[in-house]
Amino acid sequence: MSRVELLSPAGTLEKLKIALDFGADAVYGGVSHFSLRIRSGKEFSMEEFKEGIDYAHARGKKVYATINGFPFNSQLSLLKKHILAMAELEPDAFIVATPGVLKLAHELAPQIPIHLSTQANVMNVLDAKIFYEMGATRIITAREISLKDLVAIKKELPDLELEVFVHGSMCFAYSGRCLISTLQSGRVPNRGSCANDCRFPYEIYAANPETGTLFKLEEDEGVGTYIMNSKDLNLASHIDEILDSGVVDSLKIEGRTKTSYYAAVTAKAYRNAIDDYYDDKYEARKYQYELESLQNRGYTDAYLISRPFEKHDTQSLDFTMQLGTHQVSGQADESGEFFMCKYKTLPNGELEVVAPKNSKIELVDNEIGTTYERDGVVYLKLKMLRAKNGKVWEEVHSGNVNPITLPTKFAPYTFFRIKAHEDMGTYPKR
């Protein structure tokens, strides 16, 4: 079996490039409301998506186009046109969610491989075989599946590729088949417009229909009322177990609507874990340093390694989101010559450099700033905040869009971060 693929989300053209530069082998994303999510679909034009595909192919990497919405009859004519238009861009596969769309895509663009979305909820050999016979070359299995069941599917269908989620948001509902958002706000999750209603706090009441009496149920102190808020998936410390199975072809990271920093750090962490595995240097806890720098809802290893009934730590009951261990201060622009501010930055503050994989950082000391290494980590200090237009600032904040001159050229989209401190806090209970 060949080396496992690392597959990252691409919500925008910039995130696509970042994910690939930081270590992903392939990315997935889409255009229009036939792609979950609608928001990320609006962030890609057809021209930008084509540019992203060309960018990936020039680097020997892949792009999978998502056409994984659930269409209504009134949309079928438009869907056909969309499939043909996307096929002209020459992506490496289509990701679809329903048997009908799979059949249609196979008929209209037989040259494009078909990957079956996790929304199809494949959990067993029987369903996998049906979709394989229909033309699916890869199945993105249900998030509730176990490694044992993956082994069984691969044994029965050795030529069928299997893809599993290893990181990102977890849905309260079964593989994302949710109606809560539809019920409360009319936003249909499986058409790409989920309002994330499961992330809200709820008050619980008991009603007596005979008397009309309504009692509010009070929770114990510290328990919280985020009763449907799943923790985020994080399997970086189980990559060895997954790859030891020999049945997984692609490891997938969730997050097309997450930040550029998320795209970079997740790709970096899982790239290191995968490479270390094949180099016999795998260390289970090593990769959490980067992943813990991200905003998260608390982490869980969910169900791939352990069965659902064995897990009692998959919900985050008392908060919707918490800050990570680090705060991004800035990001190098695409030229690598300028610092774009993302958080309050002062002269002579120490910034940790998070650069794309295999990029070289020149150690310099000049009037603009200095770069230096300590304990294997490269840092940057800006002695002055001199903008591209020549103006010198005493401090810059996230609202300041002036490019700030860097003391040396960095790889495009390099990030600069500081450790989060207590007064940054966590997201409050609501």
UniProtKB/TrEMBL annotation:
Its domain of life reads Bacteria
PROSITE patterns tied to this protein:
PEPTIDASE_U32
User: What Pfam families is this protein classified in?
Assistant: Peptidase_U32 (PF01136)
Q: What is an example of a GO molecular function annotated in this UniProt entry?
A: peptidase activity
Tell me one GO biological process term. proteolysis
Which UniProt keywords are listed? Hydrolase, Protease
Family indicated by similarity: Belongs to the peptidase U32 family.
Task: Name it.
Answer: Protease
Q: Which organism is it from?
A: Sulfurimonas hongkongensis
